Amino acid sequence: MLSTITPSSQTGATIFGGHDIARPQLMKRLSDSGSLQQYEHNDLTPAIGREFPTIQIRDLLKADDQVFRDLAYTISSRGVVFLRNQDVTSNELRDFMLCLTTLAGCPSTSGLHVHPLTEEGSELGDQISVISSEKQKKGGGLTHQLSDVSRYASNAWHSDITFEPVPSDYAMLKIHTLPMTGGDTLWASGYEVYDRLSGPMREMLKKLTATHDAKFFLDEARNLGNPLRECERGSPLNKGAELAAVHPVIRTNRKLTFLIIAVTGWNSVYVNKGFTKRINGVTRDESDILLNYLFNMVTQNHDAQVRFRWNKNDVAIWDNRSTWHCATYDYNDPRAGDRVCSLGEAPYLDLQGSKSRKEELGL
Ligand SMILES: O=C(O)CCC(=O)C(=O)O
Ligand SMILES: [Fe+2]
């Protein structure tokens, strides 16, 4: 199993003309061979989410490459999958994530992300982000920024690390410490939001890019007393203190290049409330109107969302290219978990080869 993959694949990357970063390695379309059908599973809503109540990550780690590819396809097509009550260490989470992204065809230069706020020499290693209510209270986060007075819980909707030039393909969160009630997480489908746009609106948005920015992490690093991680954060393109990137407003899941075909090949809206500050090439007012409209499409369409109630040691794995998620800060007791985020390709819109999810599935 996974004989071709070792952690050194993160650092031993070859760069062709400096542009391998955006080139996935899979030479054919990922599709589902059906190897996961043997496991109990159920779709949580028509638009998004599948739960596998009995699968253990530790067993999957021994599975062959096709099982990982089927899982990658399932996550990318269903947006998010939930695995219950996992007996798995943080090292196993890391290994699992690396296998998943590599077998799903990520560029050879993409590894696991190092969050700019992760403390150097932290106990669990650079590639695990500790999600913790205690840290949230101290540091800020998307709804706790000191200068932010809005009380909308929906301010926390985001896709992970879109301020990086090479953002995340997949992410995985295990929650091990839970309040008695509360702390649910919501996900929403970017495919579904794209499907709800009119033809003329899609055509306009396809011509636009947006600037994503996480400068607020500079303040947060100061508040936490940790220096910002300016090193390579999992890709040669993700480094320094700029914490800003420009991406297309409509993104195809998995870049198409010479000989390469997509994971799903479906388009998604790729702006998020957490990090997207400006649609480029239009006036400030136009940008505000468009961004507010697109953010409202996420927050006001509860039939494009799934809300997950965690039990201890449950794991969620999602595709950050085509979903948003939102934590719920409605509890006082401690809540904590470990998150691993893998890096995919530089975001790309495939004008010729892409489809909408509903077009492809005939829905
Ligand atoms: O705490 C949560 O429920 C979600 C945190 C989050 O945004 C993440 O793990 O990427
Ligand atoms: Fe997140």
Automatic annotation (TrEMBL):
Keyword Transferase (UniProt): no
Keywords carried by this UniProt record: Dioxygenase, Iron, Metal-binding, Oxidoreductase
Official protein name in the record: TauD/TfdA-like domain-containing protein
Oxidoreductase recorded as keyword: yes
Taxonomic classification: Eukaryota, Fungi, Dikarya, Ascomycota, Pezizomycotina
InterPro entries named in the record: AtsK-like, TauD-like_sf, TauD/TfdA-like
GO cellular component, one term: cytoplasm
Assigned protein family: Belongs to the TfdA dioxygenase family.
Organism (species): Triangularia setosa
Cofactor: Fe(2+)
Limits of the TauD/TfdA-like domain: 41-335
Domain of life: Eukaryota
GO MF assignments: 2-oxoglutarate-dependent dioxygenase activity; metal ion binding
